């Protein structure tokens, strides 16, 4: 991955994180995190990976984000000074859930040792 794509990914991650923090109403007591962004080499599309804790609210958060995708895209278009602005697509972050599961297993093993 080129240095330019990495910088664009980081910039998109920062801006979307700010927008979600300030403007998106999520369920109460829910943590919504942008974990990473992956853009295509031609910068036509960016997959924004979202982690939601607790996972029970995941469906509601993704529905809310997808309802406001047009607004989010408009905000990104205003904030980024680029010739081509990638189309934003939200994707569920699977690695966070598997990391949490591994953590649970390790905690269970620690309790069994005592």
Name the features.
114 residues; alpha+beta; GMP Synthetase, Chain A, domain 3; 3-stranded mixed sheet; 4 helices; 3 strands; 54% helix
Describe the structure in your own words.
The protein has 114 residues and is an alpha+beta fold. It has a single domain, classed as K homology (KH) domain (GMP Synthetase, Chain A, domain 3, 2-Layer Sandwich), CATH 3.30.300.20. The chain has four helices and three strands; from the N terminus they run αββααβα. It has helices spanning 3-23, 58-67, 69-79, 94-113; strands at 31-39, 45-53, 87-92. A three-stranded mixed beta sheet has the order 1-2-3, with helices on both faces. A hairpin with a 5-residue loop joins β1 and β2 (45-53). α1 crosses α3. The chain is globular and about 60 Å long. The chain starts with a helix and ends with a helix.
Record the SSE blueprint:
Layout (H helix, E strand, L loop, with lengths): L2 H21 L7 E9 L5 E9 L4 H10 L1 H11 L7 E6 L1 H20 L1
Helix pairs in contact: 1-3
Per DSSP, what share of the residues sits in E-state strands of 2 or more residues? Answer: 15-25%
Helix fraction, binned, reads 40-55%
How can the largest sheet be summarized?
3 strands, mixed
> What string gives the helices and strands in order?
HEEHHEH
Number of strands: 3
The CATH superfamily name is K homology (KH) domain
Number of helices: 4
* Name of the CATH architecture: 2-Layer Sandwich
Poorly predicted segments = none
| Tertiary shape | globular
Placed side by side, the strands forming the largest sheet appear as 1-2-3
* Average pLDDT metric: 86
